[in-house]
Amino acid sequence: MKQTVLEGREALKKEIDKIAEVAGYLWQNGWAERNGGNITVNITELVDDKIKSLPAISDVKQIGVTLPALKGCYFFCKGTGKRMRDLAREPMDNGSIIRILDDCASYVIIADNAVMPTSELPSHLTVHAHLIETGSPYRATVHTHPIELIAMSHNPKMMGKDVLSNLLWSMIPETKAFCPLGLGIVPYELPGSNNLAQATLNELENYDVVMWEKHGVFAKGLDVMDAFDQIDVLSKSAKIYINSRCMGFEPEGMSEAQMKEMSVAFNLPK
Ligand SMILES: [Zn+2]
Fold first, then answer.
1. 33 in catalytic set
2. Rounded to the nearest whole angstrom, what is the distance from the C-alpha of residue 113 to the centroid of ligand 1?
């Protein structure tokens, strides 16, 4: 049997199992072609002294940014070039646990294998640093390619502030209840670019899920399941909208009054 840091650590194993489960959903939904998408989870609270004393199994790698809030933090990151469908079956062979070093600008891999983290690591870690700085309980970030939501982002009319939020909320009451902040919009930027990271960070101030125009979504959540659920309800609404259009009509949507009634009844923020 392969040696794994998960052995005898129930809480950590449960967290990694959740990541694997969500990776499977991303693949099954058709949102994770080839090596598309990323998952990064802050697991610092689940790391014991023995893990903290584990030696590095990689060279020291530069993050590319200095993030003082991450001092002493540990993350599980999907590996660069790895597939979600493989991560679903073997998370520790398609992702790894990293330790942020004391300079807050570099890291080492500590378990289980020296799988290099995603090339999107700087942007994911920048978001995590911001979550820590603001005292957020959120521990997970997910990037994926939901087909229907991306399709809708090809319509410039839908890229106005909260145009998509209101449209998606109006398709089915639960979307407003379970994605209460709506969908933020980030105009198209080069994947992996600093501009994309900065625009995402800004938009995440006001939303849990943001649309990267013509590319995908980026979500933060309490854990990876929470982040997935919010994307999933938005995607459900997008499917209802598109199905209505395919049947040849513009869906009526819930009325303003009905949406307001939801906000009051469920004490929603918007
Ligand atoms: Zn992508």
1. no
2. 24
Q: 186 CA distance to ligand 1 centroid (A)? A: 13
Distance 191 CA to ligand 1 centre (A): 7
The rounded mean pLDDT for the chain is 97
Structure tokens, 126: 């920048």
> Is the CA virtual torsion 43, 60, 119, 123 positive or negative?
positive
Q: How confident is the model at residue 1 (pLDDT cuts 50, 70, 90)?
A: low
Domains of the chain from N-terminus onward: 1-118 (3.40.225.10), 146-270 (3.40.225.10)
Question: In the sheet where 38-42 sits, what is the strand order?
Answer: 61-62, 106-111, 95-100, 74-78, 38-42, 140-144, 216-221, 209-212, 183-186
What are 65-94's pLDDT values in tens digits?
999 999 999 999 999 999 999 999 999 999
Distances (CA, A) of 154 to 20, 26, 175: 30, 21, 21
The CA distances from residue 24 to 117, 184, 233, in Å, are 19, 25, 17
pTM above 0.85? yes
Q: Which amino acid is at 143?
A: H
Q: Which of 15, 33, 45, 120 is catalytic?
A: 120
Please tell me whether residue 141 adopts helix, strand or coil conformation.
strand
Model pLDDT, residue 93: 98
In a 13 Å sphere around the CA of 99, the CA atoms on its Cβ side amount to: 21
d(CA 242, CA 153) in angstroms, rounded, equals: 13
User: Predicted confidence band at 119 (pLDDT cuts at 50, 70, 90)?
Assistant: confident
